[in-house]
UniProtKB/TrEMBL annotation:
This is Malto-oligosyltrehalose trehalohydrolase. Keywords: Carbohydrate metabolism, Cytoplasm, Glycosidase, Hydrolase. It catalyses: hydrolysis of (1->4)-alpha-D-glucosidic linkage in 4-alpha-D-[(1->4)-alpha-D-glucanosyl]n trehalose to yield trehalose and (1->4)-alpha-D-glucan. Pathway: Glycan biosynthesis; trehalose biosynthesis. The record marks 389 as: Transition state stabilizer. The lineage of its organism: Bacteria, Pseudomonadati, Pseudomonadota, Alphaproteobacteria, Hyphomicrobiales. Belongs to the glycosyl hydrolase 13 family. The active site is at 259 (nucleophile), 294 (proton donor). It comes from the Bacteria. Its EC number is 3.2.1.141. GO terms for molecular function: 4-alpha-D-(1->4)-alpha-D-glucanotrehalose trehalohydrolase activity.
């Protein structure tokens, strides 16, 4: 299977070829509803394969291994009846119109994370496609879709994928996905897919096909790990890598967001992530591919070039930035936030260096955390204020608009969108969505109790949630209302037009001002101005390109005398105000005068941008 033999049901002009990997099994049969039974021939590489004449797209089938129960195909392309239902033969024919699209590159991206099921009230690809012009107008360049592989249950986040080739049917058809991606490309927006290759969810069928899919050599908090480095691992690696390539070739996805890479255990000479990255880029060529990763240990090798022993990815999510800003903005640092004080220096350091933990001790872990990243260019860090995890890891799934004052929210948004790293927004953040985003997983029976109790135990690490009264009021993940209540209310985009304009203006400024481009020759520095205040300085070869972003989350700050070199303008130039988070267009309190050569006040909960102009 080293040639990555195509798995699943592949239709052609005369029928369909069925291929499964079932190492260690003796007999495999495909049963087609109304079409007969087709024994598959055993191959030398552990695969079983046969061509079924007259069986075409739309045929429903199941697979029977060693006379066991008929089950879905692990490489099924569609499961209209869910995780345990019949698989369907699917044609990948589509009239693509994106031939001129070249794909996103590493630099100057604006990422937008969304969950198809809650992004709109309909929860479908077709409904989401209608919002693409809105996202393009906002300034989004890459849409990151939360996992869409089939999982057990009626609704969920998707991180419990069991059938990774089969798009979750309630969201729409494979053709609907292609139409979404094609339309996005037509607007100049890329689409990447969040993939889960560290474990599988409840009710999987893998072991029926082969015991070699998983390994018990490693401890994985979410369940058994894929066998990437043991006996017969080559076939498992091919199954996963081929899945990644499948999304690129058959759906024109522009790349991936790899979930929890630290749980993809592999001691092989070439790590599975490196192999996956190489295969995705080869499949996307001549287009570029954009691959980012969630990696809790914050390992620099994720973005190192392959010839330097790295995995060649484009970016890593930076929880440190989110945690420091969250503590600064809310004042709370319990549970995993306790390694952060939210000081201006922490924020400055994150804007200069990305990760805050480069190998020093973490109190939460009682161990060293992170790796050396001091020289990492900022485009390799994905910065965010909200994402699915950080919003839902609270008792009520509250968004920042419910946790912060409007002024404070505007101020920290400027820090995200004008910061040197790659910004990422979470669905509805741009218009201050007030609906919560909760953890939901629509299963029933004993498994439902396990999920609900497990969620309570996890959240009890936050002291406030351990309150018995709060525990009783936690939303039940298996209740459909928990899912329905997490859907965006798009009428809020009109009601909160001021915050939406702030996001649009900042992203337009990020795009139009060369100083904010990650392709520029700028240099970043920063300084602490007070207990809650800081500045970020952009220094460029051209004096007129210099910029200063001021942020104050403390009391009004008198700026009459500031003994800080970074606030001095370039020789022969002066600072003039270019933008303020308190502009009335953003529902702000009004812009106070900014006169750097006189006495002036940097207001509380405010961000101000200064630009350099000749005197």
């Amino acid at each position: 299977m080293t040639s990555r033999r195509p798995l699943g049901a592949i239709p052609d002009a005369n029928g369909t070829r069925f291929t499964v990997w079932a190492e260690g099994r003796k007999r495999v049969v495909v049963e087609v509803e109304g079409g007969g039974t087709f024994p598959l021939e055993a191959m030398e590489d552990g695969c079983f394969s046969a061509h079924a004449a007259g069986i075409g797209a739309g045929a429903r089938y199941k697979v029977r291994v060693d006379a066991g129960e008929a089950i879905p195909d692990l490489a099924s392309r569609l499961q209209p009846d869910g995780n345990d239902g019949a698989s369907v033969v699917v044609s990948n024919d589509f009239d693509w119109t994106d031939a001129a699209w070249t794909g996103p590159t590493t630099r100057d991206q604006v990422v937008y994370e969304l969950h198809i099921g809650t992004f709109t009230q309909q929860g479908t690809w077709t409904a989401a496609r209608e919002k693409l012009e809105f996202l393009a107008g906002l300034g989004v360049t890459v849409i990151q879709i939360m996992p869409i592989g089939t999982f057990k249950g009626a609704f969920g986040w998707g991180y419990d994928t069991t059938l990774p080739y089969a798009p979750f049917a309630p969201y729409g058809t494979p053709e609907d996905i292609r139409a979404f991606v094609d339309a996005a490309h037509g607007l100049g927006v890329g689409v990447i897919l969040d993939v889960v290759y560290n474990h599988v969810g409840l009710g999987d069928h893998y072991r029926t096909y082969s015991e070699h899919f998983f390994t018990d050599r490693y401890e994985n908090e979410w369940g058994a790990s894929f066998n990437y480095d043991g006996e017969h691992a080559h076939a498992v690696r091919d199954f996963v890598v081929a899945n990644a390539v499948y999304w690129i070739t058959e759906f024109h996805m522009d790349g991936l967001r790899i979930d929890a890479a630290q749980a993809m255990f592999d001691s092989s000479d070439e790590h599975i992530i490196a192999e996956l990255s190489r295969a995705v880029r080869e499949a996307a060529a001549p287009r570029s591919a954009y691959i980012i990763v969630e990696n809790q240990p914050q390992e620099h090798k994720m973005i190192d070039a392959p010839d330097q022993g790295g995995y060649g990815l484009d970016g890593m999510y930076n929880d440190d930035f989110q945690h420091a800003v969250r503590v600064a903005a809310t004042g709370h640092n319990d549970f995993y936030y306790r390694d952060y004080l939210g000081t201006p220096q922490e924020i400055v350091s994150s804007l200069k260096y990305g990760f805050l933990y480069h190998g020093q001790r973490s109190d939460q872990r009682d161990a060293a955390y992170g790796t050396d990243n001091l020289d990492t260019p900022p485009e390799h860090f994905i910065h965010f204020l909200e994402n699915h995890d950080q919003v839902a890891n609270s008792p009520q799934g509250l968004r920042l608009t419910s946790l912060l004052s409007p002024a404070r929210l505007r101020a920290v948004t400027a820090l995200l969108l004008l910061g040197p790293q790659t910004p990422c927004l979470f669905q509805g953040q741009e218009f201050g969505s007030s609906n919560p985003f909760l953890y939901f997983f629509g299963i029933d029976g004993d498994a439902a109790d396990l999920v609900s109790n497990g969620r309570k135990e996890s959240l009890k690490n936050f002291p406030g949630v351990a309150d018995p009264v709060m525990l009783e009021r936690l939303a039940d993940p298996t209740d459909r209302q928990t899912f329905e209540g997490s859907k965006l209310d798009w009428k809020e985009a009109e009601r909160h037009s001021g915050l939406l304009k702030l996001h649009r203006d900042l992203l337009a400024l990020r795009k139009s001002d060369p100083t904010f481009s990650q392709n520029s020759e700028r240099r970043i520095d920063g300084a602490v101005l007070g207990d809650g205040a800081l500045l970020l300085r952009y220094l460029t070869p051209n004096s007129e390109g210099h910029r200063v972003l001021l942020l104050n989350l403390g009391r009004d700050l008198h700026m009459s005398v500031v003994a800080e070199p970074l606030i001095a303008p370039p020789r022969g130039h002066q600072w003039v105000p270019a933008w303020s988070s308190e502009h009335p267009d953003y529902d702000g309190a009004g812009r106070r005068p900014v006169e750097p050569e006189k006495f002036w006040i940097l207001p509380s909960d405010c961000a101000v941008l200064l630009k350099s102009e000749p005197r």
